[in-house]
Amino acid sequence: MSTQKAVVLIVEDEPLIRFTMLDALEEVGHVVLEAANADEAMVLLRNRTDVDIVFTDVNMAGSMDGIQLAQRVRALRPHIGIIITSGVVRLDPMLLPTRTFFLPKPYQHDTVLTAVHSLLQN
Fold first, then answer.
1. Where are the beta strands (DSSP E) in 2-118?
2. Count of Cβ atoms closer than 10 Å to residue 111 Cβ
3. Which of 8, 11, 69, 107 would you label with 88, given CA atoms 20 to 30 Å apart?
4. Residue 118's Cα: distance from chain center in Å?
């Protein structure tokens, strides 16, 4: 079974979580970029046009949280798929824009991979 490969930007301030997700995504062949906060993510997005999916935590240090980052990404690049995750905030999936998933923490890697696959199909 051939699976489409994506360029995924992980925005997560917890290094262990970031590295674990990076490994899980690279293991199945995706190209992974990483940022410790939304400000770093915006710099990467300005310099790269090949990002397919942004995977972001909600609560992070910096000038904006993950929800604000998602809104900015959606405004700049409407085609990018977005996965938002949080252990604190709960978002109503019905209120999310199209091509956006919310995954409450703790999540399983399979759940993230399924969300990535689904975003690549649309």
1. 7-11, 31-35, 53-57, 81-86, 100-104
2. 15
3. 8
4. 13
Q: Give Cα separations from 99 to 3, 5, 7, 38 (angstroms).
A: 19, 17, 15, 19
Predicted pLDDT at 3: 59
Q: State the pTM of this model.
A: 0.93
Say how many Å lie between the first and final Cα of the chain, rounded. 18
Give the whole-number percent of the chain exceeding pLDDT 70: 98
Both tokens of residue 41?
């993510």
Q: How far, in Å, CA of 9 to CA of 41, rounded?
A: 8
**Domain 7-121, second-level architecture:** 3-Layer(aba) Sandwich (3.40)
Residue type, 100: T
pLDDT tens profile 62-72: 999 999 999 99
Bridge partners of 31? Answer: 7
Q: How far apart are CA 9 and CA 1, in angstroms?
A: 24
